[in-house]
Specification:
The chain is of the alpha+beta class. Helices cover about 40% and strands about 20% of the residues. The strands form two sheets. Strands 1, 2, 3, 4, 5, 14, 15 and 16 form an eight-stranded mixed sheet that branches. A hairpin with a 2-residue loop joins strand 8 (about 335-345) and strand 9. The radius of gyration is 29 Å and the shape is elongated. The two termini are about 25 Å apart. The model is unreliable at about 150-190 (pLDDT under 50).
Length: about 525
């Protein structure tokens, strides 16, 4: 790889406490920090798999065993993703708004604000980090490349008492499933069925629909001389088609959920634009994004608009250390790197998701939206959209198959919603292996900090020496022991060893640790 494509980072030693955005502790949040002057997507992928996350160009890794609210990196498998009931209801509500301009169950959408709290913590730490100017960064590029680089809802039973299905309903269900002996149903008179329907108003709606369907089919059979058995079979086939589970993409395509010929009252367009380096489309819309961000911070996080000037906004939501890499020309997607996922409603920008597309995943960095549209539950809705984006990218680039949702904090109730995206996995803070959420939750119920791996053979090997850590000194790439020989009066072993432990031995030989 060319020398100018090395990752270049500065490490900030120490573990000073900062304010926690979850428990509000004044100094309980503890983490390690890196200022990333530039990062390859493969190196950043390796970092987030070890619990790191970025805020602008500042990367941070919580000190899991001592921080007040340990945040575990969480990822979801889009290829196996199953919608929960609440997620289906959300999509149905939004579809009714898009199709009919109906707002149902309007309530505050706090999901985005909750998931962004950890980003805000990284934001505060980044504000204190030292950084170099762009001209100085250019001077860091090595002169030589001396080293090679490599359920069913049961609410109707709660008030009216437990309902015992009558024989008609039981037989009807059995015949629909088994296609056996439908003539026995015909023996029940229409009057009796109608009487049961009228007298059992507390029955489950499904059972009432079955009885009404039976009445209708029997009458149709008598009027047309079509055997009841044939009508039951036709009805069963229609219901199997109608009740076929809808995929996430089908539920997101709200235009197909209405009746044929219905025109949507609102049009939603979702566009992926490259934010670093800035595409022309991004440049044309950045002022609109900035305005939405100021409104979001003011109404959701109760911060002053003046705090979020354009330079501040750019530093934390536009600036990125990731080196741009393009996909194959045949792909409809733009490549690896940093992007903004823009949501346009009737030509108006209402929300923006900040995303990183890496070698193995789409990583959610941040989401902000216009508070006027909080009734759309844009936090969860955007996450579902991003899961669908992962599935679409996977078709072109099969290596990208995961959706990283940031951090999961078990002892923070407002963060547990991430566990509803199934299947999802948490990374073990000691072995950096992935484990199903179902296995992790019982352990986290017992202790907010937990090791998930039970296999002692999977322990990470703690490097014994920092001699081979790659450093960048005087625009030259060299191992740390060479740098040490050139600067015998400088003692930095403790800092470099700490860096080695938090990034891992492999990355310590991939990235360049900048030395003054």
């Amino acid at each position: 790889m060319p020398a100018n494509e090395y990752s270049i980072v500065e490490y900030f030693p120490g573990n000073e406490g900062h304010k926690c955005g979850y428990c509000k502790s004044s100094a309980g949040n503890r983490s390690h920090g890196l200022w990333a002057h530039r990062l390859t997507v493969s190196d950043y992928q390796s970092l987030i798999d070890r619990g790191w996350r970025r805020s602008g160009k500042y990367c941070y890794k919580p000190s899991m065993d001592v921080t007040c609210c340990p945040p575990y990196t969480i990822k979801c498998d889009p290829l196996e993703f199953k919608l929960s009931k609440s997620q289906k209801r959300l999509l149905q509500r939004n579809a009714r708004y898009f199709m009919k301009d109906e707002i149902i169950g309007c309530r505050k959408s706090s999901t985005a604000a909750e998931s962004n709290d950890s980003f805000q913590q990284g934001h505060h730490a980044a504000a204190a980090a030292q950084k170099l100017s762009e001209s100085e960064i250019d001077k860091l590029i090595p002169l030589t490349n001396s080293l090679d680089k490599k359920e069913l809802n049961k609410s109707s039973n709660s008030k009216g008492g437990k309902f015992k299905s009558n024989k008609v309903v039981k037989n009807f269900n059995t015949d629909i499933a088994n296609n056996s002996n439908p003539e026995s149903l015909a023996a029940t008179s229409d009057d009796k069925v109608a009487e049961k329907v009228s007298l059992n108003q507390s029955k489950k709606r499904k059972e009432i629909r079955i009885e009404k369907c039976l009445v209708r089919l029997k009458k149709h059979s008598e009027q047309t001389d079509v055997p009841l058995e044939t009508l039951l079979e036709r009805n069963r086939a229609k219901r199997m088609i109608k009740n076929k589970p809808k995929s996430l993409s089908e539920r997101l395509d709200y235009s197909k959920l209405g009746k044929p010929g219905d025109e949507p009252k609102h049009k939603l367009d979702v566009v992926l634009v490259r934010s670093h380096p800035k595409s022309q489309q991004f440049k044309d819309t950045v002022d609109m994004e900035h305005e939405i961000m100021m409104k979001y911070q003011q109404h959701v996080h109760k911060e002053e608009r003046s705090k979020w000037g354009m330079s501040h906004f750019s530093r934390f939501l536009i600036d990125s250390p990731l080196i741009q890499e393009e996909f194959d020309e045949t792909s409809k997607f733009k490549g690896f790197g940093s992007f903004h996922h823009q949501y346009w409603l009737d030509g108006r920008l209402i929300a923006v998701g900040v995303l990183d597309i890496l070698q193995s995943c789409v990583s959610s960095v941040y989401l902000f939206y216009d508070p006027e549209f909080s009734f759309l539950s844009l936090g969860t809705y955007a996450a579902l959209r991003e899961i669908q984006l992962c599935k679409e990218i996977y078709i072109d680039i099969p290596s990208i198959r995961w959706y990283y949702m940031g951090y999961y904090i078990h002892n923070c109730p407002k963060m547990r919603y991430k566990g509803a995206f199934k299947p999802s996995y948490l990374v073990c803070p000691e072995t950096y292996t992935w484990h199903p959420m179902e296995i992790c939750k019982p352990k986290l119920d017992e202790s907010k900090y937990s090791r998930f791996s039970s296999d002692s053979s999977s322990d990470s090997v703690v490097p014994s020496s920092c001699s081979d850590v790659l450093v960048l000194y005087d625009r030259q790439v060299m191992p740390y022991y060479v740098y040490r020989s050139l600067n015998p009066l400088i003692t930095q072993e403790r800092e470099v060893e700490e860096y080695l432990n938090v990034v891992g031995e492999i990355l310590s030989k991939e990235m360049l640790l900048y030395r003054h």
